[in-house]
Each structure stands twice: as C-alpha cells, then as structure tokens.
C-alpha cells in the first residue's frame, strides 16, 4: 500500500474543528480548485511569490506543482510538509511546515493559505496551532519562524495570538519596489507557557526517519 512506502500519508493532526493531513490526489485537485477561487481579497498581495496574481487556472496549477515538488524532493537535509486543512472532510486550505538541517538546528518555518470563504473564522489560528503542536511537542523543534508584510494584519494577528515575538525585519524587492516584512519567532518555552487550541497527532512513529529522528 502507498502508506507503507510513504508513511507521511498516515500522519494526522486533529484540532477541535479541523484535521491536517497529506492530501490524496483527488483532494489536492480540490485544494487546487479552492486556491483558484481566491485566497485573499482583490487588490491584496500577502505573499512574496506572485503565485496568486494569475488566472484561477494558474493558481490551481501552482498548488499542484508545489505539492508534487514537496513530495519528490523530500530529504532529511531539507523538507516541506504540505498538509491539507480539512473541515468535516472538506478541504479549506493548506499549511506547510519547512525544516532544514532539522536534526541539528531544530528550527522550522511555516506558511499557509485558506480559501477566501473560510477567512475570519479562526481556522488559520487553529490550523497553525496544530502545525506547531506537531513541530514542538512531537518533532522536538526549539523554535518556529514566520514573517509577513507589515500590512498583512491577519497573518501578523495569528502569530501574535500564538505568542510569536518580534525577530527583526526583512527588506525584499517586489515588482521593482522595496517591501518590508516583520520577522517573528516563537520558542518552545513560550509555546508551552501560553494557551493555544489543543491538537492530537497520529501516525508519526512510522515517519520519524523521514525527519531524521
């Protein structure tokens, strides 16, 4: 069976309203169509990559390509775990956990998107908390990093709600202009001292070697 060859398909993170797991082929197609329908309001630009600027078909194909690339290039030295966010079996978004030299440095970064119809309902906070539960409480991460443009108030609000603290700024070129992002950092100590939505993790034991553990 596929799960025997690629045990990440058995990995699940369950929160009160959501389940995070690696999507199967028909589910990643549904997620791609969801992204094609929009992941932010018109006129916004919350991501450094211009993947949301094109047509609905362009956005959908980007989701497919990224999903396949993450699977094909998985390596202990650097990996990206892209988990579908499901609400009562329906895909509503995608969250990604990125690790590099993880057995040594024990740091991760995260990024995510939700279909625009699912914004403003606390799903982003709950999904990020589930991802961080996996990272801190089960993989042994010591810090999680993230960043957002200074006008991306929704993303920054989720990070601050979960206890991230300022970690400087980044200045990057976007469309020929300099843009500033706030960098944020959450340590395992701060994670454990602050309240966050509960989450349970299943199927990790068979996956540990893939993370270098």
Automatic annotation (TrEMBL):
Domain of life: Bacteria
A Pfam family the protein falls into: Acetyltransf_3
Keyword terms of this UniProt record: Transferase
A GO cellular component annotation in the UniProt record: cytoplasm
The name this protein goes by in its record: Putative succinyl-CoA transferase
Domain N-acetyltransferase as annotated: residue spans: 17-164
The keyword Transferase appears for this protein: yes
UniProt key word Transferase: yes
GO molecular function: protein N-terminal-serine acetyltransferase activity; protein-N-terminal-alanine acetyltransferase activity
Lineage: Bacteria, Bacillati, Actinomycetota, Actinomycetes, Micromonosporales
InterPro entries: Acyl_CoA_acyltransferase, GNAT_dom, Ribosomal_N-acetyltransferase
């Amino acid at each position: 069976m596929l799960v025997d060859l690629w045990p990440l398909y058995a990995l699940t993170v369950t929160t009160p309203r959501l389940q995070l797991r690696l999507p199967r082929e028909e589910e990643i197609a549904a997620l791609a169509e969801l992204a094609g329908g929009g992941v932010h309001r018109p006129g916004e630009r919350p991501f450094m990559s211009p993947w949301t600027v094109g047509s609905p078909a362009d956005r959908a194909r980007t989701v497919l390509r990224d999903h396949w690339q993450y699977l094909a290039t998985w390596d202990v030295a650097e990996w990206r775990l892209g988990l579908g966010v499901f609400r009562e079996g329906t895909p509503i978004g995608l969250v990604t956990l990125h690790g590099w030299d993880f057995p040594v440095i024990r740091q991760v970064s995260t990024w995510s998107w939700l279909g625009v119809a699912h914004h403003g309902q606390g799903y982003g906070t709950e999904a990020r908390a589930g991802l961080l539960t996996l990272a801190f409480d089960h993989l042994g991460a010591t810090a999680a990093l993230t960043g957002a443009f200074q006008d991306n108030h929704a993303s920054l609000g989720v990070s601050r709600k979960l206890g991230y603290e300022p970690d400087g700024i980044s200045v990057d070129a976007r469309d020929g202009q300099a843009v500033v992002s706030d960098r944020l950092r959450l340590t395992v100590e701060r994670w454990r001292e602050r309240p966050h939505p509960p989450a349970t993790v299943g199927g990790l034991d068979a996956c540990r070697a893939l993370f270098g553990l």
